[in-house]
Amino acid sequence: MSNSPSTTPAQIKLYPPNELMASLLGQQDELLRVVESALGNARILVRGNEITIDGEDMAVVERVFRELQLLLQHGQMLDPANISRAIDMVKANESPSEVLTSDILRSARGRNVRPKTSGQKRYVDAIAENTVTFGIGPAGTGKSYLAVALAVQALQSKQVERIILTRPAVEAGERLGFLPGDLMAKVDPYLRPLYDALFDFLGTDAVPRLMEKGAIEVAPLAFMRGRTLNGSFIILDEAQNTTPEQMKMFLTRIGFGSKAVVTGDVTQIDLDGGKSGLINIENVLNAVDNLAFVRLDGRDVVRHKIVQDIVEAYDIARSQGIKL
Description:
The chain is of the alpha/beta class.
């Protein structure tokens, strides 16, 4: 073994295939600017299909470009949003090409549904590996959307016989009694986001047919009492608005051959003076096998960047003891 000191190269050169260069750099080098802005301690020079990198961050930039090339070779389109997410993953020593190319299913509109962050990938993997998974995090992290996607995939592959989607019907500024219609009509606004996800994955024609056959059921949480749910993929959405008694009731409905996903955001509790069933639930269930908790945060927000910034601003305020 040589005892001579290791040396760091003065610069790194990459030679992506010519046909990938336009997609790699973006229109008028828009995507290149994103990389340069995020990793300012490196200099990047492009001539033809030769990319020369030097500076303090050159090893990180090299890995970013190699990962982006792999994404393109997997058929992934690049845009400023997923470039930024890829950079964040590389900085965290994660592999974007493994995270962003994991297909869940193809939607009715022909779009491949994939996790967009490493947190979402952990969430998807946890659901696949466990009977019960809790996905806890702020709005925009894909908790409900990905859970419905996996439920549809399980139904289509005949792993389950039906999908059951449920939410607590909590009066958030509007009393149900004053809304028109029967109970289902009154709670329909609370269930609408779940319908929207189903329509996205299955199409507007297929969902009503599957509901008529009993393969899909969308109902308020109160309808779960007294039932045993076998062969089902069950999603409890907005679980922060359950009481501890309702949470226990829901979890004890799970039957043979079933899988359950519980989603919620403990910063958006609408219960009027009651205690949320999602608070401290991890302390209660931490010794239970085949059950997982996945916590998502601002880095997993996949809506407009301002949503991520708002979530992070609230997190900082709470950490500083600012009363909200």
